[in-house]
């Protein structure tokens, strides 16, 4: 064994304690450090010929790189719908790396069964029936792509071809209908050979991002045979929800595959005040849910649900002499594009076991309350304008006068010590959006952001 490896192995317990202290220091500074620190990058250097060992590597990382990382795990990182990492999820992730399991084959340990049971808990969390079976993937983009891949196979079956064997050329023209599709939908269609041009944007309801069900029915009537419908349970800009029940009811008159992008909107099911937004989710043929958003587990983690496991295994089955047979309970290797990956389910298992439905409901309700509080503050600050109602956990707003992309970028830059917000465009208007999904965020963070907005705009707080 190389002497550096042997030395680190001999000192591993002490070294891991040091790493734990370093991680604790990093997390302990989240409340006060700039959310996006200025970049003063260390100079590049060649690959070391002789390594320095773990202790020296940790020292260098702590000195040169850790201070430059964004506080994305913290309470005021409000961009991209990024959750943090609950204490239990962090423990699960550390143990995931320590155990270093590839859970795709039942020939090697209990990893696949742990994933199945965790998927079962997630199915209960989102109020789905037993017909929905799930698999872990890397994120919403891959979850959407897997759902669309199964939908592609379903379309082929309707047209008398097996796309998994014959390719997309045998399928002919495909129409994918959606009101406000996430950018990952087009990316997935490109990857699957269906093409971005197959995506048809259907008119939405007035002053909404939700699809107009009547316009969707007209589009389905004009489709040449069965189609794919991508519905939204929570759009990116305003967390708008398509009427899933009304869309599912259209299957009485039209034949289509219903895929629901519920990347973070599925968590509305946990809130009694918002659960009606996802009524009808169980009727979907496939569902995308992103776990490193509102479940607050580390990147990367998402789950993909479908009612059509037979078609899923037809697409993703992996025939090799060293793997087990497909069987009635397929191993994960037959369910997604990956043949090997980490045991993503363990972090989710830990946080669900540690905090249960009730703990995660509290996170959702607190984040939602924070979003509504910021929405009220935006309406009260002269110089700002709320662009859409706060429906769940995202606040979309702009400048009241001259809302150019450049001025909003300047505003976001002024806020970076106190909060990180991402730019967007809503109804043709440049805007900023604040997405609340971190388990640490409280009303105190909303107050700090509100004061930062007032200061950036030169607007003093009103007298008490």
From TrEMBL:
Query: Annotated Gene Ontology MF terms?
Result: aromatic-L-amino-acid decarboxylase activity; pyridoxal phosphate binding
Instruction: Supply the Pfam families for this chain.
Output: Pyridoxal_deC
Q: Which GO terms describe its biological process?
A: amino acid metabolic process; carboxylic acid metabolic process
Q: Which UniProt keywords apply?
A: Decarboxylase, Lyase, Pyridoxal phosphate
Taxonomically, the superkingdom here is: Bacteria
Keyword flag Lyase = yes
* Necessary cofactors: pyridoxal 5'-phosphate
Q: Which residues carry this modification: N6-(pyridoxal phosphate)lysine?
A: 293
**Family named by the database record:** Belongs to the group II decarboxylase family.
Q: What is this protein called?
A: Glutamate/tyrosine decarboxylase-like PLP-dependent enzyme
- Name the species this protein comes from: Actinomadura luteofluorescens
């Amino acid at each position: 064994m190389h002497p550096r490896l042997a030395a680190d192995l001999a000192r591993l317990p002490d070294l891991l304690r040091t790493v734990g202290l370093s991680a604790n220091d990093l997390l302990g500074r989240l409340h006060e450090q700039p959310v996006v620190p200025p970049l003063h990058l260390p100079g590049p250097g060649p690959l070391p010929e002789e390594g320095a060992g773990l202790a020296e590597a940790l020292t260098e990382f702590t000195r040169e790189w850790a201070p430059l990382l964004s506080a994305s795990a913290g309470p005021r990182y409000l961009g991209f719908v990024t959750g943090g990492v609950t204490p239990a999820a962090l423990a699960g992730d550390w143990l995931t790396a320590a155990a270093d399991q590839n859970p795709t084959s039942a020939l090697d340990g209990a990893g696949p069964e742990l994933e199945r049971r965790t998927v079962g808990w997630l199915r209960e969390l989102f109020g789905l029936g037993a017909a929905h079976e799930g698999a872990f993937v890397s994120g919403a983009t891959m979850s959407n792509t897997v759902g669309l891949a199964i939908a592609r196979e379903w379309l082929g079956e309707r047209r008398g071809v097996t796309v998994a064997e014959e390719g997309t050329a045998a399928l002919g023209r495909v129409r994918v209908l959606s009101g406000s599709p996430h950018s990952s939908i087009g990316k997935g269609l490109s990857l699957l050979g269906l093409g971005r041009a197959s995506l048809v944007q259907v008119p939405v309801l007035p002053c909404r991002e939700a699809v107009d069900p009547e316009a969707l029915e007209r589009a389905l009537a004009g489709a040449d045979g069965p189609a794919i419908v991508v519905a939204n349970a929570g759009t990116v800009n305003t967390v708008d929800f398509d009427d899933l029940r009304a869309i599912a009811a259209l299957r009485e008159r039209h034949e289509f595959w219903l895929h629901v992008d519920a990347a973070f909107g599925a968590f509305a099911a946990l809130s009694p005040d918002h659960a009606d937004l996802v009524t009808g989710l169980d009727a979907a043929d496939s569902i995308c849910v992103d776990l490193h958003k509102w479940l607050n587990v580390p990147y990367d983690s998402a789950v993909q649900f479908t009612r059509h496991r037979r078609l899923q295994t037809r697409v993703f089955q992996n025939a090799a002499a060293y793997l087990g047979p497909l069987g009635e309970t397929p191993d994960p290797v037959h369910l997604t594009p990956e043949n090997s990956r980490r045991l993503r389910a363990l972090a989710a298992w830990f946080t669900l076991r540690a905090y249960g439905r009730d703990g995660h409901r509290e996170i959702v309700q607190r984040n939602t309350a924070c979003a509504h509080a910021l929405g009220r503050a935006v309406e009260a600050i002269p110089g700002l304008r709320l662009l859409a109602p706060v429906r769940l956990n995202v606040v979309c707003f702009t400048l009241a006068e001259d809302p150019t992309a450049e001025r909003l970028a300047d505003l976001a830059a002024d806020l970076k010590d106190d909060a990180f917000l991402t730019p967007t465009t809503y109804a043709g208007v440049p805007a900023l959006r604040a997405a609340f999904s971190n388990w640490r965020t409280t009303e105190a963070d909303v107050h700090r952001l509100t004061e930062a907005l007032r200061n950036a705009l030169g607007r003093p707080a009103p007298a008490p």
